[in-house]
Design goal:
Distance between the termini: 29 Å
Shape: globular
Mean pLDDT: 91
Structural class: alpha+beta
Radius of gyration: 28 Å
CATH class of the largest domain: Alpha Beta
Number of strands: 14
Number of helices: 20
Length: 632
Amino acid sequence: MFNVRSDEPKYAFLWDKETKQTNRYGDSIETVPESHELRQQPFVINDEVQEQKNPNRYKQHGFFFNADNCIFCHACEAACSEKNDNPPHIAFRSVGFLESGVHPNYTRLSISMACNHCDDPVCLKGCPTRAYTKFAEYGAVLQDPDTCFGCGYCTWVCPYNAPQLDPVKGQVSKCNMCVDRLEVGLKPACVAACLGNALDFGVVENIPENRIQAETEIPGFPRTDITHPNIRFQQTRTLQKELTRIDTMPVKYQQSRDGGYQSVVDKKHGKERSWGIKTLLASHENAHVIFTLSAQAVMGAFLMILLGSWFGIADLVRVRESAAFLPLLGSMLALMGFGLFKLNMHLGKPHRFYRGFNNLRLSPLSREIAGVSAFFAGLVGYAFFSLFDNAFANLLANVTGLLALAGFAAGSYYMYKLYRIPARPFWDHWQTATAFYGSMLVLGSVLIGIVALIFMPASDVPVATLSAMALVGLLVEAVGLFFHARDLVAGQGEGAAAHYQQTTAFGKTYWLRNILMAVNGIMLLVLPLIGVTSVAGLLLASALAVSLLLMAYLERIIFYALVIPTTMPGAFFWRNKGFVEHAREVGLADMEQVGVVHERHHKFKLDELLQTVRENSVRDMLDHVKWILTGK
């Protein structure tokens, strides 16, 4: 049990006596009914029956933040980090700032934010390893870092920056509501440390003493309909009609007619176009770029070959029966294996990859992993049985081909669905589907074309069919990109801000991608007319392949690098992307106390592999499979 000091001040203790039945979202504040077996069990800590000091243990608790009282001292951050023994680069609670006006009519508004222990936690639904649990006790959303394998998907889906991915440890951790303090009737450490009495805590919807508001929104706070967060605000001071962030995010907040504030684009960085190549190439998400492009290329090529042979498309049957078929299958296996390897090595704990199947019931990421794994298994079987030329082997090849087809259907669909994240408006658009499925046709055609040119007579290469497939894929992508840009320009908030960055900070790269798309369309129309039997045709085909691959990479890296989440405002040094980049450039990141770590990826080195074996990871994996299948 947490030890209560003899001189603990009164304000550090929970104060709730009466509570309401439902919160303003219509959800019950009771986390379990009175008759639930949890309430009948004795209160046991460390195998000892303890006195239960909190009568509201099975009610949803939440934070209360009074922006009028915040004095920007950061004591809440310090107390939280000390309580949880966090390193300098990790903070479960942080204070962000908004400002407006000039002296003497200058206004600053701060927001202190940690995990909001939501009624509908998207982190729990998204996590593939089931590291998250919504506890009946206090309604706390708790996360187990030891279960986490460091994919970071929860950091994508959370609108409030609550889960923290530690690049050093390779795992996520977050605010745990200080449940050990709650068990003995104390408020969380951050609340007890607040000097200005700005932070409070209790059963949600209870308004603390001397407070007059309990609003669900405040300027700079992301939309509440995504997760139904359990935090309430008071902010009575008069604010100006426009509030700006002091970090480098190109977002500001404007007052609407109903008195609330909505996020709009802040063109603080001007309109000058840049390449942004250094930022793009240094993106932490390059592993996702490689995986999605390689997987989609293999899926597209496999689909064309399999369905082409089943439906008797002459050009594709010719490839299936040629000397290029087995090298093509080998190329697909190698490319798919490389993509999966890069994706796995991107995890904080690559040796725990098998935990990605844990949350098939809720997580689109788990379903994508399962679908892609089934596709790869089917592809391996199809390639193996294609080595033998007999009726039985052909039957088995078709059976494994069906498995790969089912894996493709599930894997490609959830590869798209996992990016439909409301907290990342730039991704949350149907254009993501056109980009992914269009890439399958384009890159699949390129893969077949390259292998066919090497292993088939030039006159037998199905140039017209492959060009038509690639052109259809290109048109699908172009239509999606057109409507995506149109919707972002007409919209507001973080999605529009991402498009602003796309056309300025990465404007030259953006237009290069657009020009390549147009040029590639023309070359795809011309190539079938010239063919590849001449030197001019081979040169055109080579230029086209290089141009299509470059276009695909630029499109995908822009997709990952530009996304702006509906995140909380940062401070000048903390949670400020601009300062982080500056610190890494000038060497400040080498100073641990600055709180910025160099971008790094967890490497699965030999000593880690040996350590994993020593920890009986194989036995752990088998126990895990048994748990998934039986629940025991």
